[in-house]
Specification:
This protein has one domain (about 1-65). The chain is rod-shaped. It is an all-alpha fold and about 70 residues long. The chain has helices spanning about 1-25, 30-65.
C-alpha cells in the first residue's frame, strides 16, 4: 500500500506542477499537454486500482489465515 500511495502522490504532484507550468509559461503545445495530462490520469487510476485490489487481497488472506473466512 505504501508504494502505491507514493506512486499516486508522485503522479498527482507531477500533473499539478505541469499544469501550473503550462498555465504560467506555456512550454508545451496544448495538444501535447493534454495527452500528457490524460496519460498521467490513466496511470494514476491504474496505480490506485492495483493498490486497492492488492490491499483487499492481503486483507482477505489475513482473515482466512486467522480462521474467520472459509
Amino acid at each position: 500500500m505504501k508504494a502505491g500511495s507514493i506512486i499516486c502522490l508522485a503522479l498527482f504532484v507531477g500533473a499539478a506542477f505541469l499544469s501550473l507550468a503550462q498555465m504560467w509559461f506555456q512550454p508545451l503545445d496544448f495538444a501535447i499537454f493534454l495527452m500528457i495530462i490524460v496519460t498521467l490520469a490513466v496511470l494514476f487510476v491504474v496505480a490506485l486500482g492495483i493498490t486497492l485490489v492488492r490491499r483487499e487481497y492481503i486483507s482477505g488472506q489475513k482473515l482466512k489465515d486467522a480462521g474467520y473466512l472459509d
